[in-house]
Specification:
Layout: H1 2-15, H2 25-43, H3 47-51, H4 56-66, H5 70-87, E1 89-95, E2 101-104, E3 110-122, E4 125-138, E5 141-146, H6 150-159, E6 172-175
Antiparallel strand pairs: 1-3, 2-3, 3-4, 4-5, 4-6
Helix pairs in contact: 4-5
Length: 177
């Protein structure tokens, strides 16, 4: 009989997803602070701060794969961002903190998807990009990652296997008339 009860308990435990937990006030404040920090840094074109919003484990993975140090990778990323924004003018960038959707991975890791809108001018054309930014908690810190880029999602899933089965919303780009 005990064995039957254990088996029944195990079956119920496996069949139900992990119980979702609400974010504490401190976690919510920390998330909003990280989003504000990112928006401010992007507006000021402070790419050093922007790069520090990416999870360190992602940088370590990419640097190791490329055979460079994390510092070299951050420097190269900063240079690439400067070059990209020399050809593109961001006229609007918003992360909708009122429409954040909270969830968690099957192992209970909390994350948030933040609707993100970027309007940019390039080559005499105005383009609007709508996407979601993933805010993931690693330890007690929030980090941000664009999930409309499939290459970044593939790296995310290698570094954070708990995101393997998480489906992210598609992004879109369209000319503004």
């Amino acid at each position: 009989m005990k064995r039957l009860l254990y088996c029944l308990f195990l079956l119920v435990a496996i069949a139900h997803p992990a119980l979702s937990r609400d974010l504490s006030s401190a976690e919510q404040d920390s998330l909003r602070t990280q989003i504000e920090r990112f928006q401010t840094a992007l507006s000021a074109q402070d790419f050093e701060v922007v790069s520090k919003t990416v999870p360190p484990k992602i940088f370590e993975f990419i640097a190791s794969d490329a055979g460079v140090t994390v510092e070299q990778l951050r420097s190269a990323l900063t240079t690439q961002m400067q070059m990209a924004l020399a050809a593109v003018k961001i006229t609007e960038f918003t992360m909708d903190t009122q429409a954040i959707s909270l969830a968690q991975t099957p192992d209970g890791t909390p994350y948030a998807l933040v609707p993100t809108k970027t309007v940019m001018e390039t080559g005499g054309q105005t383009i609007e990009a709508k996407s979601h930014t993933l805010a993931l908690m690693d330890g007690t810190a929030w980090y941000l990652l664009r999930v409309s880029d499939q290459q970044q999602v593939a790296i995310l899933r290698k570094v954070y296997p708990s995101f393997a089965d998480v489906t992210f919303p598609d992004g879109s780009m369209q000319p503004v008339k």
